[in-house]
Fold each of these.
Amino acid sequence: MIAIIDYKAGNLASVQRAVKSVGFACRITRNPREILEAERVIFPGVGAAGAAMADLKVTGLDRVLRDLFERGTPLLGICLGTQVVFDFSEEDDGTPCLGLMKGSVKRFPSDMRENGRVLKVPHMGWNQVRLQKEHAVLAGLQPDEEFYFVHSYYPKPADAAEIVGLTDYGLAFASIVAEASFIAVQFHLEKSGRPGIRILKNFCCWDGKNA
Amino acid sequence: MLSRRIIPCLDVRDGKLTKGIKFKGNIDIGDPVEMARHYYEAGADELVFYDITASSDRRDIMIEVVRRTAEEIFIPFSVGGGLRTVEDMRRVLLAGAEKVSVNSAAVNTPDLIRQGALAFGRQCVVLGMDVLKVGRRAETPSGYEVVIHGGRIRTGLDALWWAKEGERLGAGEICLNSIDADGTQDGYEMELTSLISTQVGIPVIASGGAGSPEHLRAVLVEAHADAALVASITHYGQYTIKEIKDYLSARGVKVRKVW
């Protein structure tokens, strides 16, 4: 069974529908035991880091996520779920986060330009991911596949070795990061058409090892 | 680099697809879910459903359309038309839409934008604007006026002022429809689109008037639109999404390649 962690962060039904479309059973849940017993776990999220962290602490899901990391359960972060695993986010006047990955989450500068054109924030729409290395969950993707993004903050891992994909929007930011049994994407793979569904399908079969 | 989006707009009435010419003489052309799937496969970047069902007790039909669509297509889509409260928005979002679009209701109750952004995030709230060219007057210094109820009622609101006010209230995006250009296939309203796009900090989707791929190039490049809405030009098979994207790509406009 695949657990989708419910922490009051956005509409999780679209992730659930996408998982079902590739033929896997999944459950939206905030029950710690159910999450810890799952074969694979998806940590999605839309919204703000402050409220998300507050809810994770109140429900004890912060400790559950730490346990998942330590056990090596295959774990997939999406959007906000990708951001709050780092040490700190600049969102909501600065939010201490889970600290499972070293690094921080920064806001896009408001004065970015590209070919003379002002770059609007949020970064919303389809953009390319330049794959930096191979990963089992990304098998079958083209090297410069496009995905659907909606975000104003981006992850900045301290260790460049954890960056699997880079995307350019005024600056080059980490759009896919991975470490051991954890892989996380800044884009909405559940809204990214075929390549997004491909990643999801790969994850649903992944054993947590990248060999 | 971010791609410019091509967004087919599906007008739905009583659960069926229609396309109006200047909002009059709507004719049925089929099942919206089938059309959505067709566009998903054909390389559309996003979809817009606009519910023009007149009677509010038939709105559940639209929720069912949204639910069925969400099960079959995995790109973002927004739903507009007849959403008057945060509860209306919630139902559509829970049924599987990525965004909601408010138009007349936001003019009548501007706080709806703020409430929607607070409840679901700015990225979920699209301000739909129907705009008429009226010439520069004291009331409308930009020369454009906001109209509502499908263009039947003038509001006296200046279009540029309302766009900025919508952004301030929390809209994450503006879908800018020119009543003058809508259904003509003579090209987008360039002056209006450029005016709004360059003066707000949120993405602007140009709407109304697409008749050729060149019209899209012009509005995306010269009028600085972030995305372009299409309807008649693709609904009746005149051009495919791929043909439009190939045209744009060959002229240096960054678009997402069709799978």
Note: Chain A has one domain: 2-204.
Amino acid sequence: MADLKSTFLGIESPNPFWLASAPPTDKAYNVNRAFEAGWGGVVWKTLGEEGPPIVNVSGPRYGALHSNERRVIGFNNIELITDRPLQTNLDEIRQIKRDWPDRAVVVSVMLPMNEEAWAKHLPMIEDTGADGLELNFGCPHGMSERGMGAAVGQVPEYIQMATEWAKSAAKIPVIVKLTPNVASILPPAKAAQAGGADAVSLINTVNSIMRVNYDTLTMYPTTGGMGTHGGYCGEAVKPIALNMVAEIARTRETGALPISGIGGITDWRDAVDFLALGASNVQVCTAAMVYGFKIIDDLADGLSTFLDDKGMALDDLIGKAVPSVTDWQHLNLNYVEKAVIDQDLCIKCGRCHVVCEDTSHQAITHTVDGERRFEVIDDECVGCNLCVSVCPVDSCITMKQVSDDNDAPLAWTDHPNNPMRNTESE
Amino acid sequence: MAGQPDIRNSRLAQDEIAANFSDLHPALSRSEALIEADRCYFCFDAPCTDACPTGIDIPAFIQKIRSDNVKGSARTILSENIMGGMCSRVCPTEVLCEEACVRNTHEEKPVEIGLLQRYATDPQIETGQQLFARAAPTGKRVAVVGGGPAGLSCAHRLATLGHDVVIFNRDEKVGGLNEYGIAAYKTVNDFAQTEADYILAIGGIEVRNNCALGADVSLTDLRNEYDAVFLGIGLGRSNDLGIDGEDKDGVVNATDYIAELRQAGDLSELPVGRTVVVIGGGMTAIDIAVQSRHLGAEQVHMVYRRGPENMSASAFEQALAQTSGVTIHHRAPPKQILGDEHVTGVEFEADGGKFVLYADIVFKAIGQHLNGIEGPATENGRIVIDGWHRTSLDRVWAGGDCVIDGDDLTVTAVQHGKLAAIDIDRHLGEQ
């Protein structure tokens, strides 16, 4: 079995799976259970400043997007940062780190935008023996109304400023957690880097309203009839997160910045996605909140087995797919694929035909020689992959390359139809 | 074995009988229905719809179940098949829609279309919520002869289109074979009447029960008094075996006994033989054999003159009989009924030889034939019709089991009634 031992910013953990800062890491009881189950580390649920504790709503804090069999596809929450006294958390963190010296214990923190707050609180956290800090510039609900969380993360100057304060107040590594509720993830990432961040973690949750209650025609869920947007997470947000991770990883200025990947990781394949696109470790929350801590078994075993099958070490996987991510303008427009339908696997549902007919290129038959038969019309097929995407049978429709590898590639940057094309060679 | 036949009631305790006659396929819960609906691939030009004699848009109604639009789902079903509720219970789906389901190709487990259809239609029929409104009155009057599936379907469609309908029904209750013929465990809780009431509640339909064609009303009078006539009279008579001894006591038409069973208030009071022989290979043969077992008959033999591949009972029905403890014999035509006054057994021919099965009761279930009708042309004992269900008589339409392409299925009868109604409406509009 491949060794999953992970080192992130010098913080060691037996595997690269940490529980993200969230309800599962709010107190020692949960964290003990997580470590007993085999999790490599935790990011303790966000601590705030000393004083009267945060007050949470006591109605629904969570909402879910379900499939028909009630599988949770997406999830949102309006819970704030920890609502327990600061000292209680600090005492428990200290004890946990003593009891579990081989596990990563990073503490999430959210403080007002004044340097004194950071100078005062970070040493208190560091004193617990915690391995690192994660600055919560991401939560989009509640705390952002008070000028913290995403309100900071959406302003690169604030990110840099607070990161600088944190770096000067703390000796342990500082991870900056980024919000996806921005037009581009690069300015926030660059700001974190400029402020001296040792790493970034992303994504935090996405602004969201789950749905309407069809009886009351109010938003759902509500707290006594009124609701507010929450932070969206779970499987549904993974592609958004992967893009942001890859953007940071493939950009020259930020490419060296270590990334802790977060966003919808549910099974080991999701972890492979994040690692291959540039994350050095991953954080999980929703899947644990939906299935419990036991999923770490599949996550770790699946990743280890995968690495064995590939003959790779964990470090080899990290960033492996990054070079394959580029801008659209660099794609080879001379490369051509066409869909091919395996008639032995085809169950004749006709979904490929109807979606191609209604919404794409009219490139799939429904009848051939009077028989119900679905075949690709090569002349019409543009290789869009829609039929592959909707076919209910795995591997029934595949894409086959028809262009010649020996043909010279042609990207938009050099394409004759592009008025802005490179003309150096002409 | 000569002596008194062993025929008596209460062979089983009442609760055993109740359990035996409970719903064959219990209804789906909401969560079961949502999961099953999710299995539908929403096929293009769906093979299941092609396989449905009434052409219900099956993917559309399943999609509406998925989106919790149960009422819309019922509307999709009932707009093509007003007996979608009964058909969801009695259709041999394994040889119709579910056989066509593309899920069979790789996993051999079709979407449970029948159960989903029941899930969608039951709430409407149980609450009596009408999904269709009548069109403005046309002033036209149509006589529908027969209160079975074909007649009710025709009447409902005509009423919806604004015509006034009178149903002439020979029985005490409407429903035809739904009420008198289908196995009890397929339609529990008096569903046939609940559904008939639902259909009639559209309005504009007058029902005259105990009014038989020929005896109480003549086709000539109906043609004179009404703008159009629809014949949905079914096949009134059971076929005879044509062998010696057929007139002995204890040789019974299966359909008569099933009708008695269906109308019985207390099944434990129904006399049943200890040893039962059923002759036939169709649905009725299966129904009588299984119900005899369920009433407590110790041995039930079902004997068919040809092989299992020729049986009109589906493979599912044959398996149901076998798991219910019915012994099925193939390729054994009956030669004679044995006994003095009362039957004691049946002699069959098989493999060039012969064998005898002792019996306290013999049920004949080898099909029915038309109960002679004056007027429309017939062929092979059934009424001749064209593609729009017109008979040889002007302004007389026909459908259901009594016509040449009737196939003894409720769903087919419903389709016949519907098509005839559409054509009658067209005809009345041209007048």
Note: Residues 296-310 of chain A form the longest helix (15 residues).
